[in-house]
């Protein structure tokens, strides 16, 4: 609609065509109001019943809520109107009528349960709060990409249909690929590593990952968006620097560019970008601190993974983002390199938000013989991964990187209760549609 | 490596640590050169055999090509060196040795066939030309996203695991999803439409699509990257405006920001962004022009689709990008709206490059009854798509959009012969790995 005026741009004195949804109808007897909503906001349309053509009044007052209408009229100042202006209509056209029975109420006056919202995302995202979440999501992805480009990384796209998974056949969705068995990729790990050995050296990818995990929790998805970074000639410490920079870039972009959305989410006052460097706790320090909180029924001992309860206790104790480094090698995947001076210690790291793990990363094993031995120790057939291991014979530089879950990042940035609020159409064990 | 200097930044007089691959070794008797390559370029390292420690000379001259090395030394001016400077080394460390037998030659002196290149993408992307293609690809994606944001679109991510395909069960890869039948999505079409009915109104997505087509040609892939745009309250003409803007933004970004890469590809002189508006030919005009070329054995008649030969003849005749509009309704998918004043004519459009189709788009059917009837006429069960059609009962605005193939765009921008050159790890009937 080339002659359309967004409601936010409607200036007093102008003759405008506004288009959007019927947000609300109020009939006060001699006068009636239609509140029209578009992506920029809302505007009041006034029907003075005695002064206007009956057909026009009928059109503007009998339309059902959430119908799509086009209104031509003149914008006038009206201090009592919610936005200080109102439209005095000449014509109202119902472009797409809505059933009077709505599965959820986009005005937000009636609360809806999450499953109902997810079944009706179109209506759900007519609510200011839900829309704000996804505007912020888009801004975070923009900011993170910009940050990666600033540190010299090239955006890549790696295949989602693969012959083998990153860590073997478990937790993979099988697909039939022209009669062959294939899988949906659970991580771009192997492919981004192949690219750091190329002339690109430093790469990033933001794309879907697929995990056939049976988990059904508020922080697991079976299809998620992974923010991946990998670079040649850096170690795990430098990878942590980039990781911290990416998370910080996300917060700062939201702080600077999404004030309106934060307002709608009721976060305008409390929102702040994290200050200061993220503490880096070794695994050993981490379990000591967890034990010192006294919050766990059973003390952690060396070699234990950090349980959800342990992570929560530590998160409360630290009070902000923190890294856990220098894990026992046996807890971390075989493609993560051990420290040169202590093979029992891995260079793997996790970035933790007090609520949950956000990132997993580390320096990678770049030595061919050690890599192949790792596959064997893991019980995987190195031959199945030959497309990957082979390239390590032709000059694979030392490299490090990480994977950051986009939905978990958004969830922690905004304090969302359930990860399903951070993705438009979540996929979990029960949900394959819409 | 915090103290690493990129070869492009090495200034005479500096003591530097450079790291990269052994691009070339030249032994001239008393003097030998190692050409070290990193992501920014190359630098000559000089070994004066009589003046230097034997071990140092041995380390620098016995290393195999494509090994990864770190060299510490002093940068000196040397007019005879390819870049006007050279490094006089103090130490050479072989960080990752390469097998002497390489499956392809990254120096580009020995040509490799495409399958060999694709099997060894790590080595292939050490070649300047291959690397340049993917740097340009990243820049195109950046520019297109920026353009979409400029026209007010919000980035979205829609699911790749779906219960039903966009146009039914053909050409879909089946997956097993926790015991249920599901598919990998062939297009975000239905999901982006659901989002234009939300408060976002205008959205874009750049993500993978999956098509189980049996085609095995230089311009088909079974996994590709789709650049999708969809907006409420616009018609097919306005969608064509945005489509043209996106393609133009891609060319202009390459023109402005990728001169070095164009140079490496031998395109620096001939490359130019398209000038002037893309002509918009109706289908009727298009078949007349094709017939007038006299290049087809058989004249086209109304209702014929444009064959590859017809597209090529028309492309030569027009000489640049062009749209084909107003197709016979029966050739276009049912979810594309027909003209209100002529139901036999579709609002669907294609954007053509002289070499191939790039885009398919149109105004969509937003009326519930007509949409459901369309499913039935197509032989599809509307109930299977209820998650989608249901939302059309609650105020779905008129809307239009398009899908643009990222690989085809890159292929036509750079004149690549085979679409597999435009994707890092292509998937086709024969290729599932790497």
UniProtKB/TrEMBL annotation, chains A, B:
Reactions it catalyzes: tRNA(Asx) + L-aspartate + ATP = L-aspartyl-tRNA(Asx) + AMP + diphosphate
EC number(s) reported in the record: 6.1.1.23
Region (Aspartate): 189-192
Cofactor binding notes: Binds 3 Mg(2+) cations per subunit. The strongest magnesium site (Mg1) is bound to the beta- and gamma-phosphates of ATP and four water molecules complete its coordination sphere.
Span of domain Aminoacyl-transfer RNA synthetases class-II family profile: 99-434
GO MF: aspartate-tRNA ligase activity; aspartate-tRNA(Asn) ligase activity; ATP binding; magnesium ion binding
Binding site for Mg(2+) 3: 357
Residues that hold Mg(2+) 2 according to the record: 357, 360
Annotated CDD domains: AsxRS_core
Major place of residence: cytoplasm
Cofactors (names): Mg(2+)
Alphabetic keyword roster: Aminoacyl-tRNA synthetase, ATP-binding, Cytoplasm, Ligase, Magnesium, Metal-binding, Nucleotide-binding, Protein biosynthesis
Subunit structure, as described in the record: Homodimer.
Function (record text): Aspartyl-tRNA synthetase with relaxed tRNA specificity since it is able to aspartylate not only its cognate tRNA(Asp) but also tRNA(Asn). Reaction proceeds in two steps: L-aspartate is first activated by ATP to form Asp-AMP and then transferred to the acceptor end of tRNA(Asp/Asn).
Protein known as: Aspartate--tRNA(Asp/Asn) ligase
Gene: aspS
